[in-house]
Automatic annotation (TrEMBL):
The lineage of its organism: Bacteria, Pseudomonadati, Pseudomonadota, Gammaproteobacteria, Oceanospirillales. This is DDE-type integrase/transposase/recombinase. SUPFAM superfamilies: Ribonuclease H-like. Residues 3-137 form the Integrase catalytic domain. GO terms for biological process: DNA integration.
Amino acid sequence: MDTLEVPLVYRCPLHGDITYIWAGHCWSYLAVVMDLHTRRVVGAALSDKPSGALVVSAFEHAVAERKPGPGLMFHSDQGSQYASRQFRRMLWRYRTVQSTSRRGNCWDNAPMERLFFAAVEIGLTLVSCKLIYGALI
């Protein structure tokens, strides 16, 4: 039987979210992109501002890691960072389809919330944030 085999990784969406971390004297913002098939973090970025540039950076790390083709789906909440012109232009450049949650619908964000909760459980500290940030520069 002749079938076109499409790698599963290209058919599974990416999921993004932002969390904030107290860094001793100010807040730091961590944007993470997760592969929903493997539940593995494939992109991350850390900044002192929760801006569109932060989520663009995290997504570009994910694209560099996964090297997806056109038609990739990216899911997030309706946060201003994901609705920003900068982020939407970047999605267009990579031919990525954007998917967002309905207002007040938190259930589809559960994988990311679990990741952030696990990070707090294991003690995500400023030192580990500095290590993450240094590794992503």
